[in-house]
Input
Amino acid sequence: MAKTAVYAVFKGRKTGLFYYWPECHEPVDGFPDASFKKFSTVDEVFSTLAIKTALSGARRQYLHALHGWCLFHLQSIA
Output
């Protein structure tokens, strides 16, 4: 099984998690001060966010729900 990368776009025309480079490249290509990073796993994305960001309770709940959604969809395509 091929290793799946996760691309997180923090600042671009569209933000979020992407699982294919062309999907990630489109919202950041030519966008001023775009911010994005490649991660090995979805868990690594959320660990990085938790470490770098002081999250409010509502924001933490949103990220937790998003994480669950991503895991569900990753499992459904595996």
Notes: The helical segments are 21-28, 42-52, 57-77. The CA atoms of residues 8 and 20 lie 11 Å apart. The chain has a mean pLDDT of 75. The radius of gyration is 13 Å.
